Amino acid sequence: MTPETIGLVGCWQVIGVRREVIPLGKGESKERDEIGLYVTSCALEQHTDAEMSEVIRGHWSAIENGTHHRRDVTLGEDACRVAHRGAASVLASLRNLAIGVYELEKHQERTQADSLPSWRRTRTFGTALAALRR
After folding, report:
1. Which residues neighbour 31 within 8 Å (Cβ) at sequence distance 6 or greater?
2. 6 with 38: CB under 8 angstroms?
3. What's the DSSP call for residue 130?
């Protein structure tokens, strides 16, 4: 399989990563394997398999330790009990938007807040919309 055959023109590799999932909670009882697929524009000879594995691990580490941690700790994502998949997706997008607006204001030095929680307490829909319009 090539990236072009699945419609990803400009990508050079499709990488499959096998993960062994070992459930730690009470609800799940079976170990299982998962296959994660990744695409990259890196040429095959550009990186070794070990280097590509490290890039993938680093990507997920940044997501789990960065975005997910901020969405959960600051915005209470894991405590949210919305069951409808579409609604949960919309809420995740809104949380990402809030983090993005905060980062934008911080980068452009338009906020005095030193953290996302303190910034969030001062926001209303109107002030967030005004931040996006600047």
Report:
1. 20, 21, 22, 23
2. no
3. H
Give the number of residues written for the chain. Answer: 134
Q: What tokens were used for 67? A: 């975005």
The answer to whether residues 106 and 112 touch, using CB atoms and an 8 Å cutoff, is no
Q: What is the largest CA-CA distance in the chain?
A: 51
Bridge partner list, 34? 19
Q: Are 50 and 21 in contact (CB under 8 A)?
A: no
At 28-62, the pLDDT tens digits run: 678 899 998 888 888 888 999 999 999 888 887 77
Please say whether the dihedral angle defined by the alpha carbons of residues 43, 45, 49 and 52, taken in this order, is positive or negative: negative
Which pTM was predicted? Answer: 0.55
Rounded mean pLDDT, 9-17:
84
Residue 1: band (very low, low, confident or very high) from pLDDT cuts 50, 70, 90: low
Residues 6+ apart with CB under 8 A from 19: 33, 34, 35, 36
Contacts of 44 (CB under 8 A, 6+ apart): 12, 13
